[in-house]
Inverse folding.
C-alpha cells in the first residue's frame, strides 16, 4: 500500500517537473475525495439521521468551505428533503471554487507552459 502511494507521488512529481498540466487529474481527485467523504457521512438510511456538523468539520480539514449547512438545507427545502446527490453537487461545486480561487492566487505554476528543458535553465 505505501509503496503504491510512494510511486503515485513520484509519478505526480515527475509530471509536475516536466511541466505537465495536472488540472484534470486534480479535478478527478477532488471529485473522488469529496464523494467519499459525503458518502461516509450519509451512510444512514435517511437524511434526518445525517450528522452534517461532522461532515462539515471533516470537509474543513480538506479545503476552506465557504457554504454553510443552513445554505444547503435552504436550497433543499429541509433536512428531510436533502438528497446525497444534491449534497455532493453543492459541496463539490464549493470545493472547485475554492480550488480555482487558490489556483488564481498562486498563478500559473512555473514551467506550466514551457518544456522541462527550458525550465531547468
Amino acid at each position: 500500500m505505501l509503496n503504491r502511494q510512494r510511486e503515485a507521488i513520484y509519478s505526480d512529481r515527475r509530471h509536475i517537473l516536466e511541466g505537465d498540466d495536472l488540472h484534470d487529474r486534480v479535478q478527478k481527485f477532488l471529485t473522488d475525495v469529496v464523494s467519499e467523504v459525503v458518502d461516509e457521512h450519509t451512510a444512514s438510511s435517511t437524511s434526518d439521521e445525517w450528522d452534517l456538523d461532522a461532515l462539515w468539520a471533516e470537509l474543513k480539514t480538506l479545503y476552506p468551505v465557504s457554504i454553510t449547512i443552513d445554505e444547503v438545507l435552504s436550497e433543499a427545502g429541509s433536512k428531510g428533503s436533502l438528497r446525497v446527490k444534491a449534497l455532493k453537487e453543492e459541496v463539490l461545486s464549493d470545493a472547485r471554487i475554492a480550488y480555482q480561487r487558490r489556483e488564481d492566487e498562486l498563478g500559473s505554476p512555473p514551467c506550466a507552459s514551457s518544456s522541462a528543458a527550458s525550465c531547468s535553465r
